[in-house]
Amino acid sequence: MISDHKLLEHDVRKIVRLLAEVSIHVNDQSLAKSTLMKGLCRLIDADSWAWGLAKDVSPGEPSVHLSLIHGGFTEVTSAMFTRAYQHPDMTDVHTPLVAEMKRRNCHITRLRQQIDPDGRAFTNGAGPYWEKADIRGVILSMYPTPGGFISIMGIYRRFSASLFNERENLIAHVALGGFPWLHANNWSASCKAITGLCTRKRMITDFLIKGYKRKDIAKHLGISPHTTNDYVKSVFEHFQVHSQAELIGKFHGGGRL
To answer: CB neighbours (10 Å) of residue 230?
Structure first.
């Protein structure tokens, strides 16, 4: 049990209607995921969301993860969100949650105040980026997949909004666990390749697959265009592609890595 809170009948009806909407897109996983997350945001009054994949690492090891699809962000808040969750200081924040998921070996969903009761994510090195991303309320959901990978979903609220509560967390947990086939997909191949990249190159990859131009990547990371081009070239070589479009196709078009 993730909470003693009980769902009301109208909550259940709304979840059922949402799951029915998602089931229509059984042949398009990206569309099914975005439909689910957008609908969930409507149900619990969230502002933005992200869905990605993480490598199951041992306690103390650096996090290895990538946000593959997202919604509700502006160009700037999306860039700051990427910098926030890719920040090395977030490893210590996420480690207890990953350890709990491994111990229970099941899908878990937690509020920000449960994951990080002391608010370390907002006072450590990642804090300024979370603020610039305009994120305060957080629900984080992790679903173990075959091969030692984790399907990871985040739902967010702006700084001006209240934190999520236990009822909203339970709604998210039920909705996000409704489709096991959305978690057991070919993203594990993508993540295997990601594990061979340093944090900065993973961040560059994240920006590229979200469609950012090189000049914008340089601006948001505070590095020179020349340095950005060197990183992009290295990322292309790592994934054996020749263009940004080809890289995006690897992750969103079912390409093999």
So the answer is: 13
Residues paired with residue 154 on neighbouring β-strands, in sequence order: 50, 140
Q: For 196-252, CATH number?
A: 1.10.10.10
Q: What angle, 0 to 180 degrees and rounded to 10, lies between the N-to-C axes of helices 166-176 and 9-23?
A: 30
pLDDT surpasses 60 at 186: no
Report residue 27 as tokens. Answer: 């042949």
Q: How confident is the model at residue 189 (pLDDT cuts 50, 70, 90)?
A: low
How far apart are alpha carbons 73 and 210 in whole angstroms? 12
CATH of domain 9-185: 3.30.450.80
Domains of the chain, residue spans = 9-185, 196-252
Mean pLDDT score of the chain: 87
Q: Which residues pair with 48 in a beta bridge?
A: 156
Tokens linked to 81: 């969100």
Q: How many Å apart are CA 153 and CA 14, to the nearest integer?
A: 20
